[in-house]
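Pipeline run #58 for the internal structure catalog. This entry was flagged by the ingest filter as a single-chain record with no existing model, so it goes straight to prediction. Upstream metadata was stripped on purpose; only the residue string is passed forward. Reviewer on rotation: M.T. Logging verbosity set to normal.
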Amino acid sequence: MKYFQQGIDIYFDNVGGDMLDAALPNMRIHGRIALCGAVSQFGLSKPHGIHNLFNLIIKSAKMEGFAQHNYLHLYPRFLEYVIGYYKQGKIVYIEDMNEGLESALAAFVGLFSRKNVGKQVIHVASE
């Protein structure tokens, strides 16, 4: 609880596994968790289980999964907001840039071994 002294109100999880398990005991009363992915489970022959689910009960927290394909009708509205925020400098992102097509395999492996930060980009050519 070093970083969340009063607990977590809302946790957006696209990692799953140990990250989700660590967030559960740190949720505030009536906290909410949105599940949209589990990248930490990709490639595992046996996915890891979650051990701290009991915290949902004792904290009266809610956890709900969602998939973006259920919200495609909202995409035009989303773009209006995001483009506006980006132009205002309210959205900042990090690119993990790799040079040359020969770096693609290592960059791809880095996605699944927690070695990249931000958006993974392969700069193939300057034309």
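catalog note: The two ends are 49 Å apart (CA to CA).
catalog note: Residues 12 and 34 are 5 Å apart (CA to CA).
status: ready for reviewer M.T.
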